[in-house]
Amino acid sequence: MLNISQLESSLWEAADQLRANSKLNANEYSMPVLGLIFLRHATNRFNAVKAEIEKGLSSRGGKKRPITIDDFKGKSAIFLPIEAQYDRILNLAENADIGKAINAAMKAIEDETQMLQGVLPKEYTSFEQDLLYNLVRIFDREELRTATGDVFGRIYEYFLNKFAMSGAQEGGEFFTPPSLVRTIVNMIEPDRGNVLDPACGSAGMFVQTGHFVENRGEDAAAKITFYGQEKSDTNTRLARMNLAVHGLEGIIRQGNTFYDRWEELLGQCDFVMSNPPFNVDGVSPEKVKTDSRLFTEKKIPGIAAKTKAVSNANYLWIQYFYSYLNERGRAGFVMASSASDAGHGEKEIREELIATQAVDMIISIGTNFFYTKSLPCTLWFFDKGKPAERQDKVLMIDARNVYRVVTRKIRDFSEEQLQNITAIAWLYRGQQERYLGLVGDYLNKTHQEAATIAGALTQLESPLAKLTQMLETFSDRLGASLPLLKDLPEVEGLVAEDIANQNIETFRATLSELEAGIQEFTAARVGLIGELQVHLAWFATQAESLSTNEGQKVCAARFALFIPQLKTLQKYINEVHKVGTRAVELAEKKLEARKQDIWDGKEVKKQRDALDIVRDQAISAIKSTLYVKAQVTWLQSRFPEAVFVDVPGLCKVVTRDEITQQDSSLTPGRYVGVTALDGEDEEDFEERMREIHLELASLNEEAVELAASIAANFEELTIIG
């Protein structure tokens, strides 16, 4: 089975290592690498579709007619001339100019595909020949040649992400973090009609929309027309390539959205989604004062006295998004946190927006979600088609304390955190069945994970028993065969024999601790497995009751009885593993076990390695079970009746009157209050320790770099002196 995450990481490491040894910087390197990923994927799709087409071709005289470009229309694949196929480039003669060949391949694809004309990178002759050959080979691994589904889409997005984090392509502005894109898509559910992103970057919003529609078993290309606009040529090219890699089509045009209106789309879009540049302060008021997209009475939020330009363009963007929507359209976009409370002209525009009753949801996002900025942000959502019962209401969600630590500088949402936030919106919209469906899925997955625990625990028996037996045999022979290290000098008044006897005593005490720990573990394991098997058999009969809230609560409560046992068992496993490892180390390092005939070092290592593996598997099975069950608890403890309620510190539905009383603020923190602190559990502690560890590691790296820089500076000073 393909491990896509491992493959992504491996490909990046290999490609970035080549860059590190070249004369190219990240900006020069990123687009050509993305071009090769595109070419590899295009070849895969071409070959797969070609095989399908050939099966249906008519034949005359035993010969089938040649395949044409028309055969590929509507097949989510690009027609590739022979010179543009990856295998042709891979198998070039050793003396061939590979850079020129790839440039020609890109040009040939552009000639055949209108959306890609003038888009693909053609700077490959600037690469060193060896570097380019190695890059081509990197993207010709067996797992890539046989990849199906959206593997290349994932890899393409992964490389976009990594280039953004490394500072390539305009500081990463082209790339909106997947967590934020997915949150927007989940909330507005773009599934039809015209979808617009007037600051589309690399088209991440469109790609995720494609995933959303395809996950429903529908064809995104048949249901949606994508429209995107981007100021920079580089980002426009990236967007078109990204769409093509994912088998999507769209109209992507280059233009400055402040001045270049898409007139025919005004009031015509079913969905608008975007991550516009925040706090732009150079827009000309003369050029936008008659803009029909600025629908409020105030129109322009304010003009800076010094520059005579718009002081902050956030509320220009917000008005654009509203104006492009049709009468039932939805919008979701990223916005600077400061915009939610901004005063003066911005407040006047915000008051008019609130008066339209289209403001639907506001979500506060914490720091470190962007790759190049650490500031928090806010997600805004409009819905012009809100039903009457919600027209006067806005859902406020404060998600600043909901995140997963990726690195010291980067956070995101886990899959489950994203689903849980989405579930809050479902309840707000009265979609209880979707909420119950999610909780039911969590309960099913909890029990699926729990069913793997017995097997994982059983796997521990063999390496534990064999390792313990070897340690006991060694202990029994110690008196007769252990060298007493008599040649050692006295240490702190103790002769070598006394030291050896102390080491023997410590080893045997550790061995006794191991044997006692195994007994405790065995007793806990046997008791848990028996009870768990009975529960799993009961759960298998509960499919019908799992569709109701009461049935789900009963199931969750019954499984909760196992949580203390699972956590205790987890501690026993870790303790037995730790003590067993310590006993082996004492034998080998303090008692010179490797010098004894009775000590089989290879077999000991084999069983230690086996114990490491099965210990990790057992802990993983328990942790996975507890983690999924924790999602059930998170939802049920906050929404016990499976209906929306205000949750302190998390969410609240507010009315226009309440917003007016808060000075027209759209900052969720003003409304949801602060949650009571829960006791810190083991998972919370581990997550905090991981975050601290990541921060320490990053600081250590920075310290090393700083020390090297200081040393270099001193060396230069010495030379100059």
Structure write-up:
The protein has 721 residues and is α/β, with parallel strands linked by helices. Helix content is 55%, strand content 10%. The protein contains 27 helices and 13 strands. The protein has helices at residues 4-20, 26-56, 86-90, 98-112, 129-138, 142-145, 151-165, 168-171, 178-188, 204-214, 220-223, 233-245, 285-288, 314-324, 344-355, 415-428, 432-450, 453-458, 461-476, 478-481, 496-539, 549-560, 563-590, 601-638, 656-661, 669-672, 682-720; strands at 59-60, 63-64, 193-197, 224-230, 250-254, 269-274, 325-336, 359-365, 377-383, 393-399, 404-405, 411-412, 651-655. It has a 9-stranded mixed beta sheet. A two-stranded antiparallel sheet has the order 1-2. β1 (59-60) and β2 (63-64) form a beta hairpin. The longest helix has 44 residues, at 496-539. The two termini are 62 Å apart. Residues 168-174 and 484-488 have low confidence and may be disordered.
Helix content: 55-70%
User: Which structural class do you get from the secondary structure elements?
Assistant: alpha/beta
**Termini Cα gap:** 62 Å
Radius of gyration: 31 Å
Average pLDDT rating? 87
Tell me what portion of residues adopts beta-strand conformation. 5-15%
Give me the number of helical elements: 27
Q: Strand order within the widest sheet?
A: 5-4-3-6-7-9-8-10-13
Low-confidence stretches: 168-174, 484-488
**Strands, count:** 13
Q: What best-fitting shape do the alpha-carbon axes yield?
A: globular
Query: How would a textbook summarize the main sheet?
Result: 9 strands, mixed
